[in-house]
Design a protein that fits this description.
CATH class of the largest domain in chain B: Alpha Beta
Helix content of chain A: over 70%
Number of strands of chain B: 20
Helix content of chain B: 25-40%
Structural class of chain A: mainly alpha
Strand content of chain A: under 5%
Number of helices of chain A: 12
CATH architecture of the largest domain in chain B: 3-Layer(aba) Sandwich
Oligomer: heterodimer
Number of helices of chain B: 9
Number of domains of chain B: 2
Radius of gyration of chain A: 19 Å
Number of strands of chain A: 0
Largest sheet of chain B: 6 strands, mixed
Largest sheet of chain A: none
Radius of gyration of chain B: 29 Å
Largest interface: A-B, 28 and 33 residues
CATH superfamily of the largest domain in chain B: P-loop containing nucleotide triphosphate hydrolases
Distance between the termini of chain A: 29 Å
């Protein structure tokens, strides 16, 4: 509780850091914020071509929806998670000057790193969903509460992971090297390009251990079918996510006492 | 150091210690990580600070002095909150502004104005508060229309000016600075000093770390001399800086080999030294104006006539007079193989009454290098109201 109050008092600093994260990322570029949208759109186009035209992938879950819309629902949340974790892992090491010389709650750097990435990709997600709807995709907007709740739970999950990885990165530079392959594997074992039902029965039990499955599937179900069934489970995820994040903050603080020495 | 505690103190440190893990290998890093997570003490550690007790009261500025690596900066960082102490208790009162590095929070791609907002947010100010202060900050920094250009195009002096302007935007109760007075051009330094003096005269308190004793004496009432992570001296800034300077000069004096070691290692060395015929260990006690004779034998490894230097220093190490046989063109007499005799005399010792140290040194024939040192106590007796260390020939003329 004390921690939350303390962080609330520092909200200006968080906002300034987050703003800096967003503007820094595209300062000096010609296209600016368009890069945030362009990269996932390009990926989406490639996946659409390879899976739809080359592999001729099709499954009953698509129903009246296009494969592109199916992938788009999960791709943007995934990008937010992956990029948020990857960027925030460098939040402490990348701000060595600040960490060594100025007194402030350093976890704010991690929050800002994840927060800024989520802000950017959530906007991209909104733009793509609207664009696809205009293009004739029958998205169901009554599923919106589920979608928003899932994004929130995803943000908490990404922040928890980033708090741990960013603190460990200060002591062990290997974290960064392990993170790349780990996230790549994660991308393929998470049902982003395929539905969970396509996973062979014999290994489907293992899929359930991947928390991302429980967050990405409801987004899809909500947008494609207006399915609100997972509202209760997602609320539990948000509460549990907030608690684990607080635990991660504690762990981060134990290590942060010695950041300035190892950074 | 027993410092009486008081509720009025702005900063109060008791038993502050800070140790860092020594982790050079990968395994060491993992062990350190494990120790941190388990909240265990480190297996191998380096104590940067040990048992620091200090107190800073309102209006009573404190200067930290000491050689590089003594722990001054670590102590400042502990007080500024950047470093968490391993042991001890720290109590802080009032608004603290720490200037550990001017422009530490600045981002090169940002304009001066944007950086001001980030820096003030780091100080806990909201955007509205910053807006209210912006004009006075920019006026003090005096960087003109450059404020809307990215910091990377600034000169280092401009960054420093902006940093100082931001740090002093809101009048802090305690201002912590680390060597910042030594940066910037002459006019900026004057501006800083002027600001500080105004700040101090209106009741502000400064915690300063500087190598310039002049700044410490000018700005601080109290000084603490930090040595090897401990407080070696604490008190009136003039007294502490004097002590530190005396120690510093003594340390920087040419290194002289230990007498016993010099004898053993077969270099130029004094075999004996007598003061007025008595062995040097007994010292010499003589009235002012008496004659002082320093004599003995000196060893020469290559059988060439060595140089002997005799000097007198005050008890605190300040040299009074020294002269060598080489300076005077005197060649020592060979009395035995590898052995030379010296006999030096001051016919009328004009030192004022007091305690002194007499030093005898053996040097090579070219008088390039000191090899040996023998010291002896020298006490001059007498009554005198004269000032200083020695009586200079003088007279009062009738007009």
């Amino acid at each position: 509780m004390k921690t939350i109050l303390e962080l609330w008092r520092q909200r200006w600093l968080f906002l300034t850091f987050a703003k800096r994260e967003v503007t820094n990322r595209y300062s000096g570029t010609l296209a600016g914020g368009l890069w945030a949208l362009g990269q996932p759109v390009l990926l989406l186009a490639i996946y659409g071509f390879v899976f739809r035209k080359v592999f001729k992938v099709g499954f009953p879950e698509l129903g009246e929806h296009s494969f592109v819309a199916f992938v788009a629902c999960a791709l943007w949340p995934w990008m937010a998670f992956q990029e948020g974790v990857q960027r925030a892992t460098h939040a402490i090491v990348g701000n060595a000057g600040l960490v060594k010389k100025v007194h402030f709650p350093q976890e704010l750097l991690v929050f800002a790193g994840v927060g800024a990435t989520f802000f950017i990709h959530f906007l991209g997600f909104a733009v793509v969903v609207i664009a696809l709807t205009i293009g004739g995709e029958p998205f169901r907007f009554d599923g919106l509460p589920v979608v928003l709740l899932a994004w929130l739970a995803l943000f908490l999950l990404a922040t928890t992971v980033a708090l741990v990885t960013s603190a460990l990165q200060v002591f062990l530079k290997d974290v960064d090297h392990m993170l790349g392959p780990a996230l790549m594997i994660m991308f393929y074992v998470t049902p982003i390009l395929y539905p969970t039902t396509q996973v062979p029965e014999s290994v489907r039990w293992a899929v359930a251990f991947n928390p991302l499955v429980h967050l990405l599937e409801p987004i899809r179900a909500g947008l494609m079918h207006g399915d609100l069934a997972s509202l209760g489970m997602l609320s539990a995820f948000v509460v549990g996510g907030a608690l684990t994040m607080m635990a991660a903050v504690m762990l981060f603080r134990r290590l942060s006492d010695y950041f300035e020495d190892f950074i | 150091m027993g410092v009486p505690s008081s509720d009025a103190a702005l900063i109060s440190l008791s038993g502050i210690g800070k140790s860092y893990p020594i982790a050079n290998s990968a395994a060491g890093r993992i062990r350190t990580l494990y120790a941190l997570l388990r909240r265990r003490p480190f297996a191998e550690r380096y104590d940067a600070l040990t048992d620091i007790n200090l107190e800073v009261r309102p209006g009573e500025s404190l200067g930290l002095i000491g050689v590089n690596g003594a722990g001054k900066s670590t102590l400042l960082k502990v007080i500024a909150g950047v470093v968490k102490p391993t042991s001890g208790e720290i109590k802080l009162r009032g608004r603290i502004s720490a200037l550990l590095e001017l422009g530490a929070g600045f981002h090169p791609e940002y304009t001066g104005r944007q950086n001001v907002f980030l820096a003030t947010a780091l100080m806990g100010m909201s955007e509205q508060e910053t807006r209210a202060q912006l004009d006075s900050i920019l006026a003090f920094a005096d960087i003109g229309e450059h404020v809307d250009q990215p910091i990377k195009h600034y000169s280092s002096g401009m960054i420093v000016r902006l940093g100082f302007a931001v740090a002093t935007a809101v009048r802090p109760d305690i201002l912590i600075t680390d060597e910042v007075l030594a940066v910037g051009d002459e006019s900026f330094q004057r501006k800083c000093i002027a600001w500080m003096e105004n700040y101090l005269s209106t009741g502000g308190t400064l915690l300063l770390c500087a190598h310039s004793m002049f700044h410490i004496q000018k700005l601080c009432q109290k000084a603490a001399w930090i040595h090897d992570g401990r407080v070696r001296a604490y008190g009136d800034s003039h007294r502490v800086t004097r002590e530190y300077l005396a120690w510093h000069d003594a340390r920087n004096a040419p290194k002289v080999q230990d007498h016993a070691q010099a004898l053993k290692s077969g270099v130029y060395a004094l075999l004996s030294m007598q003061l007025n015929g008595q062995p040097s260990q007994e010292g010499a006690i003589l009235p002012m104006g008496a004659s002082l004779r320093v004599s003995g034998r000196v060893f020469s490894p290559d059988d060439r006539a060595p140089t002997v230097l005799v000097g007198i220093v005050r008890k605190d190490g300040m040299p009074i007079y020294g002269v060598s046989s080489e300076m005077d063109g005197h060649v020592l007499v060979r009395v035995a193989p590898n052995e030379f005799a010296y006999d030096f005399e001051i016919p009328e010792l004009s030192l004022l009454p007091g305690e002194y140290t007499l030093k005898g040194h053996a040097l090579d024939p070219e008088a390039y290098r000191l090899f040996d040192e023998i010291t002896a106590d020298l006490t001059v007796l007498g009554e005198s109201r004269e000032l200083g260390v020695c009586r200079l020939p003088h007279r009062w003329n009738a007009i």
